[in-house]
User: Which sequence fits this backbone?
């Protein structure tokens, strides 16, 4: 082990939190990590440094984003830094800090980073009990956003079990197509919509269902979540470090399906390199995001923005992900003052609804900015600073309204094939009718026929 390099990384982490690190020191350090090929643990330690907010700010202000990210991506591959590595690392760094807020009525329940990692390990053990044949398990997830579904997803990603989040807006025909194509062996089902969908197709499949909710309503071979979770005690030879060491970086880890409006759903494959490199790239595009941020999240976890930007992004930054109790607008209005989010990512409709609500309560043409901002804070909580509007058109006047009243709403464009975002308007640099510039780590080209071509470490094959 290169103790000299390790000591330099430790010192740099300390300096990063004190705010007295510089670009030259960081670039020397990343180059030395590549040149000296230290063991994985030292590289992981460096990648822990690289997630710190002040480091992203230093790199972006020095305009060496692409050079830095190219080296980071190489280190991710070299050291086998995957989802499980990242979550374990965050648990050690952030400990008792809240990773998840869960709203039930007017009550707020929380889960810490250390407890999340413990639950992920337990879930991984329980999943290993299901794996009793020569054929590896393929886990389907058909559920609304809820903690136990997230535990299954993160355990699969942490220990190299293929996982398939299935859109709740699927038809029964599309669900059948997804189950057959992805060869799901076990499916976790939660919520009324998911139960209805499964019950429509269950007679065609000999698949074990693990019920996240309402066990008695689900047809077929069903196991209750509590029984599944308790079965972890039957796990034999489940060594966390060993399992994590087997996780491949470039093999298909998960498949996400896009809606098939004119044909069958399209399955987009992701490996660990796609997932992790995108987190470092997005952080460099948003250097003002960090561990003190709180997300209020309602976007479905079977879509890239909900799963990768909000869920994985929150964990990457060491921030807090808040499960909205419901995606309904009135429910979100209840949730805002409970969690006081600093970040809210949404389709355009929610930003319009918030604006229209203000219009009904105030004379927007005559009220001063302070009155409008006070009212906006009373609705969204006292801390909302950042927003993103994507997956649809939002009038430039709405963008500019929020930006002039303390909420920096950004515009963006993405595709599932790019592990989410492709472009985004840089903070404070909104341009009317623009979806921004390319995110770090992705190269864009318009072909002769107008098709957008893209490549990069987080663009899927």
Assistant:
């Amino acid at each position: 082990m290169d103790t000299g390099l390790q000591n330099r990384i430790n010192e740099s982490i300390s300096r990063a939190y004190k705010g007295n690190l510089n670009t030259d020191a960081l670039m020397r350090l990343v180059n030395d990590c590549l040149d000296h090929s230290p063991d994985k643990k030292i590289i992981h330690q460096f990648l822990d440094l690289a997630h710190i907010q002040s480091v992203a700010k230093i790199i972006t202000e020095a305009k060496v984003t692409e050079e830095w990210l190219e080296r980071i991506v190489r280190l991710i591959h070299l050291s086998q830094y995957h989802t499980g590595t990242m979550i374990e690392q965050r648990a050690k760094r952030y400990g008792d800090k809240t990773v998840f807020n869960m709203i039930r009525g007017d009550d707020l329940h929380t889960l810490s980073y250390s407890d999340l990692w413990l639950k992920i390990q337990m879930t991984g053990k329980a999943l290993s009990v299901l794996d009793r044949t020569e054929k590896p398990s393929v886990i389907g997830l058909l559920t609304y956003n809820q903690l136990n579904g997230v535990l299954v997803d993160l355990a699969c990603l942490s220990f190299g079990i293929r996982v398939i989040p299935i859109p709740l807006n699927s038809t029964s025909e599309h669900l059948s197509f997804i189950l057959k194509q992805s060869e799901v062996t076990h499916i976790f089902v939660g919520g009324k919509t998911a139960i209805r969908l499964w019950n429509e197709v269950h007679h065609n499949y000999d698949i074990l269902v693990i019920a996240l909710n309402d066990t008695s309503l689900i047809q077929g071979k069903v196991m209750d979540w509590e029984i599944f979770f308790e079965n972890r005690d039957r796990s034999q030879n489940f060594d966390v470090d060993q399992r994590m060491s087997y996780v491949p970086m470039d093999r298909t880890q998960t498949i996400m399906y896009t809606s098939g409006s004119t044909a069958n759903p399209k399955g987009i494959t992701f490996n660990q390199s796609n997932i992790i490199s995108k987190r470092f790239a997005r952080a460099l595009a948003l250097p003002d995001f960090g561990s003190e941020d709180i997300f209020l999240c309602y976007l479905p976890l079977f879509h890239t923005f909900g799963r990768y930007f909000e869920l994985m992004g929150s964990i990457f930054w060491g921030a807090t992900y808040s499960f909205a109790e419901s995606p309904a607008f009135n429910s979100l209005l209840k949730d805002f003052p409970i969690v006081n989010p600093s970040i809210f990512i949404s389709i355009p409709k929610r930003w319009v609804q918030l604006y229209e609500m203000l219009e009904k309560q105030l004379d927007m043409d005559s009220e001063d900015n302070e009155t409008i901002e006070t009212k906006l804070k009373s609705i969204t909580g006292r801390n909302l600073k950042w927003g993103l509007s994507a997956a649809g058109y939002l009038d430039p006047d709405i963008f500019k309204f929020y930006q002039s009243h303390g909420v920096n709403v950004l515009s963006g464009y993405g595709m599932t094939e790019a592990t989410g975002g492709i472009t985004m308007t840089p903070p404070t640099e909104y341009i009317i009718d623009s979806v921004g510039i390319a995110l770090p780590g992705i190269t864009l080209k318009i072909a002769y026929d107008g098709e957008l071509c893209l490549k990069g470490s987080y663009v899927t094959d």
Observations:
- The CA atoms of residues 159 and 243 lie 6 Å apart.
